[in-house]
Amino acid sequence: MKPILGVLLGIFTVITSSARSPMLAAFIILFLFVMYANKLRYWIALLSTALLFIVGIYFLMQTSISNFGFIKRMYDAIFEGNAYGRSYYLTRGWDVFKNNILFGGRILFEDAMYPHNIFVELLMSMGIAGGILFCLYFKDLTKFKLKYIKANINYLPYFLFFVQYLILVQTSYCIFANIEFWCFSAVIISIILFCNDEEIKSNDSRGYTTGNH
Q1: Contact at 8 Å (CB) between 171 and 21?
Q2: How many CB atoms lie within 10 A of CB 47?
Q3: What is the pLDDT of residues 83-115, one digit of tens each?
Q4: Which of 72, 75, 185, 199 has its CA 20 to 30 A from that of 105?
């Protein structure tokens, strides 16, 4: 009952706040679930739901509730490509980077806004040097294997929360102000390193982490 209540509260919050990025995050998380299950009926259900949502937004926009924030913003995003100023901030962030390629120029703009894109934000604020450090920090993500989740399903929520906040800092949030992104990234990297280390040990007949014994 509690998980259902939590989902309903989350949906209510997203709709009343007219947020679009959480909808994208939810779709991608569902997409990952379907990929994991990889069954035709799930693919049909996901695509049908997405199509029904798009058609529903279109027809709701033709009704008397077309001014409702969530409906209007979703319609603008889907049918008009309206990013509500994101293109402007992306361009400004890229310009800052071009003028300060090596170490970046600034974290925020004069109006305290940010590029709304993790990669442009990194380049704008820390340049190529910061981009390299960012890649080094996340390099252990390449060691992730699906069997780590299969072996311990308790790891799944951490992985999904990381995916969620990765999407949010890619489209909406400021990377420096989103503590959840850094917390869940640290947790998922720790899980990957732990599972990788345990796998290495299990492959060694004497339980050592390295070497031929």
Answers
A1: yes
A2: 11
A3: 766 788 889 999 999 999 999 988 888 888 888
A4: 185
